[in-house]
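Progress report, Aim 2. The chain analyzed during this reporting quarter is listed below.
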Amino acid sequence: MKARRYVAVWSMLVLLSVMLPVTVKASEETRKKIDQAEQEKKETESKLDETEENLDKLNEQKDSLQGALTTLNTELSQVSNNLSDLETKITDKEAEIEAMNQEIARVQEELQTAIQLKDDQYEAMKQQIKFIYERSDYLYLELFFSAGSFSDFLNKNNYIEQLSAYEEKVLQAYKDAQAAMEAKEEELQMAMDRLEQDKAELSDYKVQVVAEQSRVSGLVSKTANSISATASQISEAEAAALAYEQKIKEQEENITALKAKLAEEIRMAQLAAQSSWRDISEVSFAEGDRYLLANLIYCEAGGEPYAGQVAVGSVVINRVLSSVYPDTVTGVIYQNKQFSPVASGRLALALAEGRATGSCYQAADEVMKGTTNVGNCVYFRTPVDGVTPKYRIGGHIFY
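Predicted structure tokens for the chain:
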């Protein structure tokens, strides 16, 4: 008979706990969510600050590269001018070399003519000398004795003088031919020396062109790669910053909603304080209340000092005594979204395994007799900005 009565009472309590109107949002779960949201926001803000700092550095690097690019453009213009000047010099030098080749060919041709003329003069002079040497005495005697008159002799003597003058002329022509040949040889040697010098200068110009082209190519490649890499990093940093800003916005909205919820909880706590309260003697505890309350205390304050365990149990009993909350331990503990161990399943596991410790049972017994060390507080949580607690015990504040 007692068993049936217990089952009926227990069923009625569970039914009442489900049917009772929910007049307040979950406090502990909300506070934990606020803490978590605030922490996540701080982490996101830290990442955003780091990203923005990195973005500033990248932008500075980009500005530096832009300056380098401007300098490079100036250098490119100078290189272009240098290349143009070198190409002009190369063209001019090639023209000079071509002209010099033609001049050398002309001088060589004239030299051959001068050599031939010298040789011809030399041969003629040899024949003349030979003739004079072999017949000079006979020639003068023949001219003297063959003259019919003194006038004829003078005429023949004049011929001899002309012949001598011609000999001198031939000798001079040979000397001139020899001098001309030597001059042409000297001119040819100078022309060939200039040609070799021009070829060396042309080779230097071409080396300079290759060096300028190589330098320009290296500058262009290096700067282009740097700008491309920096632009890519800036794009990634900007995208990350936008993502963090969006995340912070969402987190702020979430925190705002949670704080609004917490404000509602505080309002409900104040309302509970101002509402009517029952005396502990008016409460009829069910047989399983002690076991249920001890395990909830274990889940919420198992690691807290004993005073903290009593304080958590006091909050549960204060709600039972308040007119704005369910009037049973079961109804208070299982009220929708009031205690996080209920929603997470930790309480169910503790109940299944009987994890409550001796101090948790002792705290439950004490508060079920009407003891409270937090006055009429109906909420507890870890410390949070915006909440002025009435009590601070262990790691929790109570209000």
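The CA atoms of residues 387 and 399 lie 8 Å apart. The first helix runs from residue 2 to 19. These observations will guide the mutagenesis work planned for the next reporting period.
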